[in-house]
Amino acid sequence: MNEARPPQDAAGSDVPGPYRILVAEDEQLMRHALGIFLRAADDLTIVEMVENGADAVEAAARLRPDVVLMDIHMPVMDGIEATRLITSRDPAIHVIALTTLGGVDAAVPMLRAGARGYLLKDCDPETLLASIRRVIGGDPALSPSVTMSLLKAVADGDPRTERGRYRSPEAPELAGADMDVLRMLARGLNTVEMAQELVLAEASVKSRIAKLCTKFEVDGRVRLLIRATELGLVSPRLGGG
Known about the structure:
Elements (H helix, E strand, L loop, with lengths): L18 E6 L3 H12 L4 E7 L2 H11 L3 E4 L8 H11 L4 E6 L4 H9 L4 E4 L4 H12 L4 E2 L1 H12 L20 H11 L4 H8 L3 H15 L4 H10 L11
Parallel strand pairs: 1-2, 1-3, 3-4, 4-5, 5-6
Helix pairs in contact: 2-3, 3-4, 8-9, 9-10
């Protein structure tokens, strides 16, 4: 098993810890469990735990954490609206949904609100910690079952995945190198794997993805993959083999 790489910035340099985590979760037992997992990691520190979305918005503005672990169903304000407010006010804050909701009805609006990760609460602690580090390093982190549901819905033309804000009348002109990157995204490769296959520095891969996001008028590689699929440019791998 490969060891987890430390998060890196756009230039490919390691991002120093400790990384500051805000937890937004209304269930006391889940907050307790998350506290155990997160405090056991040397490079993570919990700055605050809150019980609803409104408090998460206030705490994020006050504390400016690196990551917010966000439940979706919470009192006062749900996690989707809280995520939208947090990411619109401070794009440097990374939100990861941590929820029991694995379908596109919750995943699509949460990702559109600006979440960089979407995990199910039944994930193991190692996956949770690795996902936090991955998101800080610039990669998305989605539970495999959520990814499959989302991409299948897009491929099947599910109206819940229809986009208005980022929809273009036709696909932009792409060089062969751009198509290579899109195909690798569709295969589920992360930045490190793409850099190895393309024989490029990770910073160069991130730069290519950023330029593609600009071309497609989307924010983030998850949305880039969704848009490229909508336009028929790639066919995501929906299963193993």
